[in-house]
Write a structure and sequence with these properties.
- 2 copies of one chain form a homodimer.
- Chain A is of the alpha/beta class.
- Chain A is built from 18 helices and 15 strands.
- Chain A has a domain of 265 residues: Rossmann fold, CATH 3.40.50.1100.
- In chain A, the strands form 4 sheets. A 7-stranded mixed beta sheet of chain A has the order 1-4-5-15-10-11-14, with helices on both faces. Chain A has a 4-stranded parallel beta sheet with strand order 8-7-6-9, sandwiched between helices. In chain A, strands 2-3 form a two-stranded antiparallel ribbon.
- In chain A, strand 6, helix 6 and strand 7 form a beta-alpha-beta unit.
Amino acid sequence: MADNTLKYNLPETSIPKSWYNISADLPEPLAPVLHPGTGQPIGPEDLAPLFPMALIGQEVSVEREIEIPDPVRDIYRMWRPTPLYRARRLEKALGTPAKIFYKYEGVSPGGSHKPNSAVAQAFYNKEEGVTKLCTETGAGQWGSSLALAGSFFDIDVKIYMVRVSFDQKPYRKALMQTYGATCVASPSNETEAGRVILAQDPNTSGSLGIAISEAVEVAAKSDDTNYALGSVLNHVLLHQSVIGREAIEQMAMADAYPDVVIGCAGGGSNFAGLAFPFLGEMLKGGPAIKAIAIEPAACPTMTRGSFAYDYGDTAHLTPLVKMYTLGASFVPPGFHSGGLRYHGMSPLVSHLKQLGLVEARSYHQTKCFQDGVAFARTEGIVPAPESTHAVHAAIEEALIAKRDGQEKTILFNLSGHGHFDMAAYMDFFDGNLEDMDYDAAELERSLSELPDISS
Amino acid sequence: MADNTLKYNLPETSIPKSWYNISADLPEPLAPVLHPGTGQPIGPEDLAPLFPMALIGQEVSVEREIEIPDPVRDIYRMWRPTPLYRARRLEKALGTPAKIFYKYEGVSPGGSHKPNSAVAQAFYNKEEGVTKLCTETGAGQWGSSLALAGSFFDIDVKIYMVRVSFDQKPYRKALMQTYGATCVASPSNETEAGRVILAQDPNTSGSLGIAISEAVEVAAKSDDTNYALGSVLNHVLLHQSVIGREAIEQMAMADAYPDVVIGCAGGGSNFAGLAFPFLGEMLKGGPAIKAIAIEPAACPTMTRGSFAYDYGDTAHLTPLVKMYTLGASFVPPGFHSGGLRYHGMSPLVSHLKQLGLVEARSYHQTKCFQDGVAFARTEGIVPAPESTHAVHAAIEEALIAKRDGQEKTILFNLSGHGHFDMAAYMDFFDGNLEDMDYDAAELERSLSELPDISS
């Protein structure tokens, strides 16, 4: 009988025992991280007010395999290994000869891939005696996930949620509260950074850059509070490598290997989580893949931004990292994929893009929602607005394969479900959802403010 | 090494090949279903305007094993077999010697057990050439599931959603729309039944009984439209038996067998889905279990109702069935578990209760939400408000085991997640969620209207 399997499940014992660190296999090393005051490369001590030493060590490590602590694997078991699906019904609806696979991270309690790093970060902070964490969140996937992780490790979690998403997605706040965390809209009056922004524009929709400033400020000023970031940083992408590691094993179960690997990219963590292990295989001499990062046309970091040193936040509290950026003061329009509204991009993803190992595309939101609905009606799962960008790219690739009569194998990351984002689907059905573009003048202004680093 | 497994997963090939029909093993047969006009037992032709013959056949079948058609199993594969979890973190938090297991049906695309029957019903209707289905829904779990099933079988689905839930849960409507269905608040002006009720009370919160009347009326008056019911009927409970069948195999993997099996009960389908296969084992000489159906104190069908012939709907369009009932005109208060707001109870569950094989308990909602939150903080999953009733009962049983030093094994059905019900959790956290009781005078009135059937 021909293999007709729909979902490829692995047993608990197949949860990876180590994370894969692509820094070990880079053709060229990353540019150093610079101190915002001195412009000189930072050392571990510069990050110590914000992060536990274990995570700082992971941030700069070039070891290929980093062991996953047992207590972290023990919690991963609650939802990992996540299923890999063959999208047979979607393939049939498209009439494509392409095979479409997707890794579904929405089975986690938080509803996305984000708990993979949240649990690890909470664990290392707890190990070093930290009792409070603060963070930012866009659409709320990361905030909910850190709230969940905090409940498992008995850590108080405070979340600054970008105003536009806070207003669009009230259920996300309720979820964070259910997990015992506190969530406030950002910019808030609780921080210096927030008050400055509010004084300039009391009606601002907020941005991830602003919310990061608020959370970093609180952590930096407090002895018992650390900061946690849900994407961008090397250690976050490292933790997400469990996605791709499992997918490699599952694709082998399906007797297949991807030609194309797709993920949406805000800070880059779900894209990297799936793609880096496959890119690692390629860098070590394995099969070639095309890795495509999808971003929104309204916040086109890699497709319209500069590859330059910039701050990770609006108030310039973070170190300077070399990345694709739209400028730290760039405020994107209030489109629905709150998780993709970041001005920068992970230095690792940016570096690989610069090296030609990652391709970037940007899409408007309407056609992403259209394909999100088509996906729901064939595969059953309602994708998060962010994930619809990956769905659209996969469908685009499958239709190219159809046109060209190619038997291509496409793998994408369905990074989360849209259960908390149904207001966006309501807007879509009611005709209230428009394509949005970045403001070209706003981009020119924010890029003109990039720090002048001669390296 | 001691077994430390958290979730027991079965492969796609372990999806049951047949449904289990408890009617084959009943110590006494069910009372006949009576025609609402004549008071005489109905025949298949009386139901033909509403249901396809295949489902009418299942409704009266006493065959123990009823084969699941391949196209239905093919769709079940999208989420089945569902995981069985050992609630190790909850056990630890409670300090109980009891083992707590739960079958998690929230992994389905609709978010609950409801697609198990929706897909089967859509299939049989499609086989018999039906192109339109109409139905009612309470909290929206059933409506979303039939919408999903309709999208798979290309059937137009129209849903009458109880007004109070329609207003409380706008995202549910969006989900049904995403799956291509149409959802309106009930009572509506679209039906005679709805117009009569609205004329009496324009501000009514609605009820499942009213919504059923509307959907039945539309189906009865139309040639191309059938009716579908999400619970109560024998064939619905039959379809849900996949839950318990899988659980029996998974409990064996865990080298355990339940002493207590728990489910919340509105119409009875998720409770029966889990409990009937275990009760069937008992009836065939297998191990004894205590099967406990949990209902809301505000709609206490089995704990406060009469065991009598009654109509399934408010407008008296359905046949008369013998069941526990609060009276077909009973309108419960607008508490948050919309799926438990039905005036009646499945004839099969009622019959087993009457025979002493099923126990019923009723709880107020505040303590259910409290335990729902405790569950979310230990097990990660946010239960649907309906399912918190089962969670509370499982915790109650586990604490009794702790008090008595018993090593009891508890199994409950976590019938759905609460992602679309977060407004209820918001009310809980904001202190706006109150315990609600049924109105005793209202109950006396509605019970006084029970039809006078001398059998």
